[in-house]
Amino acid sequence: MTTPGKVYLVPTVLSADALFSIPAYVTAIVQQLTVFYVENERTARRYLKALDRNINIDALQLLLMNENQPPDVALAKKLLLEGKDIGILSEAGCPAIADPGHLVVQAAHSVDARIIPMIGPNSMLLALMASGMNGQNFQFVGYLPIKPPERTKMIKELELESERKKQTQLFIETPYRNNQLLKDILDNCKDHTQVCIAADITAPTEYIKTKTVKEWRKQLPELHKRPAIFLLYAGQ
């Protein structure tokens, strides 16, 4: 009986300028792989070439997985059962966290394949590390609702939960809606609640600041189209 192939969770850069953040052993593994599940074929090709310009991109099998096209998990199982190793690439940072890569990982577990998470940059953990907020008790809630009533309700609930549990709340937004999200936070949270904004992590323009809501209202950063993590802490 053929031993199932392995699934490598391959980290990618958070910024195009931050190839230094990827450990050398990632390149060594990537050079051995010919099948990848990726969110965007063009950016995946660019990243793989940046890791090793000698990689024959045209010889690779790049399988899409994104919000419009879920990964073909049946194909993933078939490839693994044939003994084929698979790489999973996120658009930024570590795969299978806030992206559809977890579905391929689920499929791999179902056929008893080995899963190998690889070390690399993770914007949520880097932001939490730099925030000064509670790193012992935290919750990542992903994207907040887009519609104003639901978003306002969610922000207030997260603040209340943070205050009650002394828990740091982490969330993200599509970059072109960052400014509106920050406005909604400042309009609906208490003056003493702390908010950390971590934008462009690992890039030359990296910006990480923690202030109270009252302090943020005095001067707002420009966050339009900048990848950002928002952290909220209302514990005393």
UniProtKB/TrEMBL annotation:
Q: Provide the GO MF annotations for this entry.
A: methyltransferase activity
Keywords from the named record: Cytoplasm, Methyltransferase, rRNA processing, S-adenosyl-L-methionine, Transferase
User: Which GO annotations describe the biological process of this protein?
Assistant: methylation; rRNA processing
Q: Give all residue intervals belonging to the Tetrapyrrole methylase domain.
A: 72-215
Q: What is this protein called?
A: 16S rRNA (Cytidine1402-2'-O)-methyltransferase
